[in-house]
Amino acid sequence: MLEILRNVDYNPHFFHIHTFNSEEEKWSEGQIISTQNRGKRTFINYPKKFREEEFEKIRQRSFENFPSRYTCLFLSEDMDTAKFWLDKLFNRCNFIQFVEVELLSGKYVYVDEQIYNIENFSKDLMIEEANSYWSGEEIENNRILTILFEGRFRVCNVKDIHNINDIL
User: Fold this and answer.
1) How far, CA to CA in Å, does 72 sit from each of 75, 86, 105, 121?
2) Using an 8 Å Cβ cutoff, are 20 and 31 in contact?
3) Is 85 left (phi over 0), alpha (psi -120 to 50) or beta?
4) What is the Cα–Cα distance from 137 to 2, expressed in whole angstroms?
5) According to its UniProt record, what is one Pfam family this protein matches (predicted)?
């Protein structure tokens, strides 16, 4: 189920934790955005950058039609996963918005983010984990189903987050 690439064909709604550093980057309700216009993520933490590069190489080689982690929008199907992303991102930027989005066009795939979060930086093990991640394998306990999306979407509901408990 996870490794199936899905095309947007019925306008599903998901949640996203939008991080930004200036008011100009803030999203508003009704805004239509394309992931193509968002730019590539950059990583300051060298071990994570190395891990991200290995995962991207595997995606390009064996799962080239899947959305890239560099340019995709990370979405959550439920509040528990959205809270995971909020906890992960809360102290990394100046501003956060909890956003409901409606997918308009594009493609998406479900992955278990818990596989990516393993703190393993051995090249061989990273390659093995990247194959598991992109193949749709799941960790039995504490899985974190995340949706990687590329395409156009509409911002439906926005809530500014000033406190980590704001979306509870």
Assistant:
1) 9, 17, 13, 23
2) no
3) alpha
4) 7
5) DUF2441
d(Cα 107, Cα 96) in Å, to the nearest integer? 25
CA-nearest of 67, 42, 93 to 152 is: 67
pLDDT tens digits, 46-83: 778 889 999 999 999 999 999 999 999 999 999 889 88
Distances 43 to 51, 52, 53 between C-alpha atoms, Å = 10, 9, 10
pLDDT of residue 44: 64
Strands (E) in the chain, as ranges, are 6-7, 13-20, 32-34, 73-75, 95-112, 145-161
For residue 53, the Cα-to-chain-centroid distance in whole angstroms is: 16
Reading the block at residue 151, the tokens are: 């395409």
**pTM, entire model:** 0.90
Q: Which one, of 71, 59, 78, lies nearest residue 116 by Cα?
A: 59
CB 126 within 8 A of CB 55: yes
